[in-house]
């Protein structure tokens, strides 16, 4: 699939773009254990000003995104694989992604930590990590339709808050794997502790290392090490981009500048790294 060269907006670095051209809101408190945030594009004026289109490049992340297409088809690239999206999709977020936007594109999304669908269906999310899958696998078509016909972003958020809250009310006791995994991720992110061995966490919860690894793969699709390293590089890169004066690699457990830079390159697509030229003053000292 041929993808034209377009203006590329890079997460963390093109801060104004991601703040000004996306709606974003946290879920209701009952759902916050599972959902990071709801989002929606607001590209009408931007696409009129840039009729050739543009792309948005995102770092790897943990969890999943449900994509609901409210407009025309768009192209989503996951690492080096491109997909033409005409409908709605389920996107594992453990890889770099780049979305190519053109006239009349309009997307709504749900960024999950862990999807509550695990309460209703026996799903091993490790089987859903390489591609984009039809959203109807995980979300009833009636709910998707209700989101699409809603009058605006706030109404879409309300529909989904209600839907997910209803699911959780049917299952008042959290599943143990979800509770353990989300607690570990939240604790490590809050304390910048990304290097504690999984054996330590397993002992804390009185389970085997193998069992804890299985919990991570079932709920996040990836291993504990992968999940924590994604959190680590995202938090470090955000700090570097937004407050370079007080950034130091040691805050995130890196041995030296070279260690951090190698990790950064590993998590960026080659093309994205090349397009960071406006920001090289932040990066040149890290080589």
Fraction of residues in β-strands: 15-25%
Helix and strand pattern: EHEEHEEEEEEEEHHHHHHHHH
In the CATH scheme, the class of the domain at 7-169 would be Mainly Beta
Radius of gyration equals: 19 Å
What is the third-level CATH name, the topology of the domain at 7-169? Jelly Rolls
Q: Uncertain segments of ≥5 residues (pLDDT<50)?
A: none
Q: What do we call the CATH homologous superfamily of the domain at 7-169?
A: Jelly Rolls
Shape: globular
Largest sheet strand order:
2-3-10-5-8-11
Major beta sheet summary: 6 strands, antiparallel
Which structural class should the secondary elements be placed in? alpha+beta
How far apart lie the N and C ends?
A: 34 Å
β-strand number: 11
Helix content: 25-40%
Q: Which architecture name of the domain at 7-169 does CATH use? A: Sandwich
Protein name: AraC family transcriptional regulator
InterPro entries: HTH_AraC (IPR018060)
Organism: Ginsengibacter hankyongi
GO molecular function, one term: sequence-specific DNA binding
What is the fold's blueprint, element by element?
Blueprint: E1 7-10, H1 15-20, E2 22-25, E3 35-41, H2 44-49, E4 54-58, E5 64-69, E6 74-78, E7 81-85, E8 89-92, E9 97-101, E10 107-112, E11 133-134, H3 141-149, H4 153-169, H5 176-191, H6 198-204, H7 209-220, H8 224-242, H9 257-267, H10 270-274, H11 280-283
Parallel strand pairs: 1-4
Antiparallel strand pairs: 2-3, 3-10, 4-9, 5-8, 5-10, 6-7, 6-9, 8-11
Helix pairs in contact: 3-4, 5-7, 6-7
GO molecular function, one term: DNA-binding transcription factor activity
InterPro entries: HTH_AraC
Protein name: AraC family transcriptional regulator
